[in-house]
Amino acid sequence: MNIIVCIKQVPETTEVKINPETNTLIREGVPAIVNPFDENAVETALKLREKHGGKVTVITMGPPQAAEALKTTIAMGVDDVILVSDRAFAGSDTWATSYTLAQTIKKIGAFNLILCGKQAIDGDTAQVGPGIAEWLKIPQVTFAVKIEVEGNKAKVERMLEEVNEVVETPLPAVITVVKQINEPRMPSLRGMMKAKKAQIKTMKAEDIDADPKNLGLDGSPTQVVKIFTPPPKGGGEILAGEPAEIIDKLIAKIKERKII
Amino acid sequence: MLLKTDPDIIKGYLEDSSNLGGGHADGVYIPQNEKEIIEALNECNSKKIPLTVSAGETGTTGGCIPFGGWALTTQKLNKIITLDTERKFAVVEPGVTLEEIEAAVKKENLLYPPDPTEKTATIGGTVSTNASGGRGYRFGSTRDWVRRIKVALPSGEILDLKRGEKKAPLSTISTYTMPRVKNAAGYFAKPGMDLIDLFIGQEGTLGIISEIEISLSPALAETFDIVAFFPSEKIAVDFVLSAKAKKDPSINFFEFFDENTLQMLKKTYPHIPEGVKAAVYIEQEITAQNENTYLEDWAQLLEKYKASIDSCWLGMDSAKKEELKNFRHAIPEHINELFKTHKLVKLATDIAVPTDKFKEMYDFYTSSLNPPGSSLFNIKFGHIGENHLHVNLLPKSSEEKIAAKGLILKFVKKAISLGGTISAEHGVGKIKHQYLKEMYGQAGIDDMIRIKKTFDPNLILGRNNMFDVDRKS
Prior knowledge:
The complex is a heterodimer. Chain A is of the alpha/beta class. Chain A has a single domain, classed as HUPs (Rossmann fold). Chain A is built from 6 helices and 13 strands. In chain A, strands 11-10-9-12-8-1-6-7-13 form a 9-stranded mixed β-sheet, with helices on both faces. In chain A, strands 2-5 form a two-stranded antiparallel sheet. Chain A starts with a strand and ends with a helix. Among the domains of chain B are: 80-173 and 183-218, Uridine Diphospho-n-acetylenolpyruvylglucosamine Reductase, domain 3, CATH 3.30.465.10; 223-417, FAD-linked oxidase, cap domain/gating helix (Vanillyl-alcohol Oxidase, Chain A, domain 3, 3-Layer(aba) Sandwich), CATH 3.40.462.40. Chain B has 13 helices and 18 strands. In chain B, the strands form 4 sheets. Chain B has a 7-stranded antiparallel β-sheet with strand order 15-12-14-13-17-18-16. In chain B, helix 11 (358-369) runs antiparallel to helix 12 (398-417). Chain B is globular, with a radius of gyration of 22 Å. The two termini of chain B are 39 Å apart. Classes of the chains: A alpha/beta, B alpha+beta. Chain A binds chain B through residues 12, 31, 33, 72, 75, 183, 185-193, 196, and chain B through 226-228, 269-271, 291-292, 295-296, 298-299, 302, 309-320, 323-324.
């Protein structure tokens, strides 16, 4: 069974700082990691390979440094990785990104299953996985918490807000996974040694037969007008002192805010 | 000064991680400056009221638990007074926690190297017990990083002790010889020692530390962390001894997980490989130039000792390293849960022995813990780089409890015979008196009581930490 996993390199959110003047993310000096949900997708692929055999290929669209994210997946044990990187892709929205990845997947060919994380932790759109399915005209199942493959079909349990739903889909299909599906394995020492030596295969716009009008900023129907940080929610206030004092302070606050 | 006598508030000062019950106090002092510490001391000393210092309450030996009298908490003495990034030192109040220090110095690209596992421990508590953690293998104990302290004595006097400036008077040096291993048991004693060293590791029995000056080191360069799994505990021990023999100063620690530890963790960490019997966790400092060489070297050594490099875990980015750190921290968390569930006082060793005796000690553990027919649950884990494993016993019946206590005493005696210590990092507190006596003899205990009386003639401070002051010898 041949599985393609799409991943994204994202800044480690615990370390993210916002530039107060431009209100954009400061990416310099922030460590980059594999989007955590995508690690779950890689783990899902490796588990399916253990059971059904076949090959796991990981692809990512991004700048040259995104190769590091691919190396992490080599260290986890995937068979092959491809970096899809070209200046023409810069500024892609989810429409252009899913087009670019779908073209790459077509080029790779011979796949039974495409796996993605449910969303990236930086953009949080959750649109790229479904977008790929549309471009490839194959079924999509989102928010998978359990996947069982049997022949040309997959039984997928979806984790929704209130209930879980089990659906069956023919393959090939795109399935996006939630973090509850598994615990991603740690990279191994042998894997990391392999990753350090690996030459990362790169594909450019011309290698994936892409229509230039669908690529990058110009190919993106979504235009970002403004990025800003919403005002932080006011934190709670703790009143200190002796119980009698606290009660007085509390009553004063309630009056001040005209709550009663 | 803030005083609390509300029983519900006092209750918050009667526990630590030892599960030692029965603590009680009449009230709690909450000083906010040195003057208020002296006030509390004067009052207690003049009325001969016992006074027990409480800090982060993360200790494992009941040192902060009062049995009568008053408690004094350092929680409001929590300011970082100076952080000198040029000369790499900080002056802090005793109630500052290790995580607060870590956060403050990290921003300046500095490191306070002692790393006891509990980050909510306070600097005052860790100085009082000479605590240490995994990186002690490379960086030593708290003692090695403390350059000056101020101590308030029961007399109300303040001692300002700077390393290298005040020798300990002969009358304050115990006559016993300390083991030549990482040690946190009993008063520090060495001919010609500094007075500051007597107050590091005194467990709140001589004075109350009111200010601490710590040395800082430049932040570590990059590191990678390996958790390797072995087919037997014996092979894992041999691997560590062989890796240590290289004496590479850029290895920060070796941590050990025995078979039962891995079994216990398996529920939370399903990726622990099947069939493995032990694991070793290593932190290696690296540079861009030597990173690949180190990866190759470790791979070679691990394979020689039958640890599969396909299944061993490697953390290179900060997120993965954090996961491995949590994996190690999960051990005491799981154990504390088990002790709590079974309502047991912690039965655990804190023994370290010299490197050339470690194998003998390890074999002794293995043969004593697993005699045929024994079902006493035990796990061994910890700082194997310093020949320092924590053996934890979980007896489920009163027979097993007696057996467990007997076993620990047996280990203590063996360690002493090998030139080791009964407590390498936790201290003695209220639960290891007997072991301290095994180590230094009644004469050693009498020596310590005599020294205590020179600073605390009314025996008010930290009563029954280390030794029983009421017992006539």
